[in-house]
């Protein structure tokens, strides 16, 4: 079981070879001193029975000295074990976070956020605690077993055979219980991940749930998961908890057998088996079986860690998103000539979404994309940003396939205002210059005025240094979107993508924003996705999409004059009332 953990995490333990070697040496000191204490206890007992005060004093002094060595060795052993366990987990967290930032978007489409976060927190904690327990016990246990076995064999082979027989019994019981319980621990960790994802999802949608009075339904769904976790967890814990009492029961039977056989040997055969030797042997037998008993006491911890190891390993083995590797001779500064050539795409192979899509956008043109929900508008932009791989076809920027560009080169070429706004916890200034850290204050103020948010900032006590987030100012959805728009203006990207840019802003503010956008988009290739058709009247090209295909193309006036056209129907449905 622990071998599986060590094997999977051995690459992260390689940098700690010296620390592991020191851990092993300290374990030998600890193991030897512990076993030698037992030997001198036996000698002290014999000294007492022989009333030899000189030998008794010497044996007691050796016991005190060896006990001190044992305690000191174990102290440093624990410190080094903690260093190895927690520092190696630090590296795993680092690599896991790097992996998370390089995973393709379809990973997040198929894995809940809560489950992913559970792997970062709970699973890694379980593994670090298990590694700590192993390094604290593995090497000392091996040393004690070897030394104790050697001394027991030198004292009495028959009694040693009894101890080995009892130990094999304990080992067999532990192996059987672990095999029986491990599937339940795997299921338990899976349910915990699913539950974390479910809670995270419900928390994010709490307003919607309350608005539709959906509380009872989500409570029932959660209760079903909770009951499933209770059954699986209880089953796993019960099976695992059998190891310790059964191991101790078998161990106690061993003590009885040793006492019984020792009595027979003393009475029937003239063997040199003194009271001190017998006492030492009984203690040795306990030291020999103790590692297995201690292992059984942390079986639950180890089984949980093995399940967590599998979940972390699954994450680390996920395929990262592809990025172009063709080196660019100069810094990529696109003029904005974009083409989609015979593009095919589907989120699921059995449900094709975009088929044979073709589009040519000249530098500086504004392209508006409209259509019903599910028509493929946002998907088109996701493909342009290389968030998802194409099934077939090619997308180029300035005649360079986007698959030849690194994701950094590609994505820094676009400024995006997304449907879902994102502002991190920090000052307003830090949020605004996120895309352009070298922006001047004059440039930032100008962009904020154009986005109609500067007056709001001026009214705040600390202005641009005002904190946003839980510990600072809380913003409305409309204000968040205004800040996002200002940030995009400040970043000065060569091309723009505006996805539902003004969906949370009132009509008056929308007019101010649209004026600012028109200025910002001058000379830049821009893609606008909006349900409010009033925001795209000045677009050079309007694409009307349905089921992944362009069904109409033209300017606002051209499309509006088409009787019974799709764009005309959408427009009149919005403005007829």
TrEMBL record:
<dbReference type="InterPro" id="IPR011527">
    <property type="entry name" value="ABC1_TM_dom"/>
</dbReference>
<dbReference type="InterPro" id="IPR003439">
    <property type="entry name" value="ABC_transporter-like_ATP-bd"/>
</dbReference>
<dbReference type="GO" id="GO:0005886">
    <property type="term" value="C:plasma membrane"/>
</dbReference>
<keyword id="KW-0813">Transport</keyword>
<dbReference type="GO" id="GO:0016887">
    <property type="term" value="F:ATP hydrolysis activity"/>
</dbReference>
<feature type="domain" description="ABC transporter">
    <location>
        <begin position="338"/>
        <end position="572"/>
    </location>
</feature>
<keyword id="KW-0812">Transmembrane</keyword>
<feature type="transmembrane region" description="Helical">
    <location>
        <begin position="60"/>
        <end position="77"/>
    </location>
</feature>
<keyword id="KW-0472">Membrane</keyword>
<dbReference type="GO" id="GO:0005524">
    <property type="term" value="F:ATP binding"/>
</dbReference>
<keyword id="KW-0547">Nucleotide-binding</keyword>
<feature type="transmembrane region" description="Helical">
    <location>
        <begin position="126"/>
        <end position="151"/>
    </location>
</feature>
<protein>
    <submittedName>
        <fullName>Sugar ABC transporter ATP-binding protein</fullName>
    </submittedName>
</protein>
<keyword id="KW-1133">Transmembrane helix</keyword>
<keyword id="KW-0067">ATP-binding</keyword>
<feature type="domain" description="ABC transmembrane type-1">
    <location>
        <begin position="21"/>
        <end position="304"/>
    </location>
</feature>
<dbReference type="Pfam" id="PF00664">
    <property type="entry name" value="ABC_membrane"/>
</dbReference>
<dbReference type="Pfam" id="PF00005">
    <property type="entry name" value="ABC_tran"/>
</dbReference>
<feature type="transmembrane region" description="Helical">
    <location>
        <begin position="255"/>
        <end position="284"/>
    </location>
</feature>
<dbReference type="InterPro" id="IPR027417">
    <property type="entry name" value="P-loop_NTPase"/>
</dbReference>
<dbReference type="InterPro" id="IPR003593">
    <property type="entry name" value="AAA+_ATPase"/>
</dbReference>
<feature type="transmembrane region" description="Helical">
    <location>
        <begin position="157"/>
        <end position="178"/>
    </location>
</feature>
<dbReference type="GO" id="GO:0015421">
    <property type="term" value="F:ABC-type oligopeptide transporter activity"/>
</dbReference>
<feature type="transmembrane region" description="Helical">
    <location>
        <begin position="20"/>
        <end position="40"/>
    </location>
</feature>
<dbReference type="InterPro" id="IPR039421">
    <property type="entry name" value="Type_1_exporter"/>
</dbReference>
<dbReference type="InterPro" id="IPR036640">
    <property type="entry name" value="ABC1_TM_sf"/>
</dbReference>
């Amino acid at each position: 079981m622990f071998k599986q953990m060590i094997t999977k995490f051995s690459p992260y333990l390689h940098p700690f070879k010296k620390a592991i070697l020191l851990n092993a040496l300290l374990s030998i000191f600890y193991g030897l001193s512990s076993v030698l204490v037992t030997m001198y206890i036996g000698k002290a007992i014999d000294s007492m029975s022989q009333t030899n005060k000189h030998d008794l004093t010497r044996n007691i002094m050796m016991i005190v000295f060896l006990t001190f060595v044992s305690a000191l060795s174990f102290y440093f052993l624990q410190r080094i074990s903690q260093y190895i366990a927690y520092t190696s987990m630090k590296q795993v967290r680092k690599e896991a976070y790097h992996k998370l930032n390089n995973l393709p978007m379809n990973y997040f489409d198929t894995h809940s956020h809560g489950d992913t976060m559970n792997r970062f927190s709970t699973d890694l904690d379980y593994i670090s605690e298990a590694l700590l327990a192993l390094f604290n016990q593995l090497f000392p246990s091996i040393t004690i077993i070897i030394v104790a076995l050697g001394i027991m064999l030198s004292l009495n082979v028959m009694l040693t055979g009894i101890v080995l027989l009892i130990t094999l019994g304990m080992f067999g019981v532990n192996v059987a219980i672990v095999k029986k319980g491990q599937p339940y621990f795997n299921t338990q960790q899976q349910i915990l991940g699913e539950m974390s994802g479910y809670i995270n999802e419900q928390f994010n949608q709490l307003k919607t749930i309350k608005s539709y009075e959906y509380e009872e339904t989500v409570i029932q769904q959660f209760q079903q998961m909770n009951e499933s976790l209770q059954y699986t967890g209880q089953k796993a814990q019960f099976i695992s908890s059998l190891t310790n009492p059964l191991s101790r029961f078998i161990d106690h039977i061993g003590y009885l057998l040793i006492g019984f056989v020792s009595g027979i040997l003393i009475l029937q055969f003239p063997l040199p088996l003194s009271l001190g030797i017998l006492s030492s042997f009984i203690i040795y037998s306990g030291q020999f079986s103790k590692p297995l008993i201690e292992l059984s006491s942390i079986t639950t911890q180890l089984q949980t860690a093995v399940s967590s190891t599998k979940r972390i390993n699954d994450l680390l083995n996920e395929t990262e998103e592809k990025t172009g590797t063709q080196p660019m001779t100069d810094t990529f500064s696109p003029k904005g000539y974009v083409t989609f050539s015979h593009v095919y795409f589907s989120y699921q192979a059995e449900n094709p979404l975009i088929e044979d899509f073709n589009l040519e956008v000249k530098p500086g043109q504004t392209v508006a994309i409209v259509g019903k929900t599910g028509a493929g508008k946002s998907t088109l932009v996701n493909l342009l940003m290389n968030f998802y791989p194409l099934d077939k076809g090619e997308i180029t920027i300035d005649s360079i396939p986007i698959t030849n560009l690194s994701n950094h080169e590609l994505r820094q070429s676009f400024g995006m205002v997304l449907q879902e706004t994102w502002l991190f916890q920090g000052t307003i200034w830090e949020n605004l210059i996120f895309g352009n850290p070298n922006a001047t204050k004059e440039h930032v103020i100008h962009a904020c005025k154009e986005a109609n948010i500067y007056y709001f900032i001026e009214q705040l006590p600390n202005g641009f240094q005002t904190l946003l987030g839980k510990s600072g100012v809380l913003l409305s959805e409309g204000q968040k979107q205004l800040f996002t728009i200002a940030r995009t203006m400040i970043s000065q990207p060569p091309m723009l993508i505006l996805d539902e840019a003004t969906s949370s802003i009132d009509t008056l503010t929308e007019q101010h924003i649209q004026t600012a956008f028109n200025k910002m988009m001058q000379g830049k290739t821009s893609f606008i996705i909006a349900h409010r058709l009033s925001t795209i009247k000045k677009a050079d090209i309007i694409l009307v999409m349905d089921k992944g295909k362009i069904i109409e193309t033209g300017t606002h006036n051209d499309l509006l004059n088409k009787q019974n056209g799709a764009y005309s129907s959408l427009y009149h449905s919005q403005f007829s009332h």
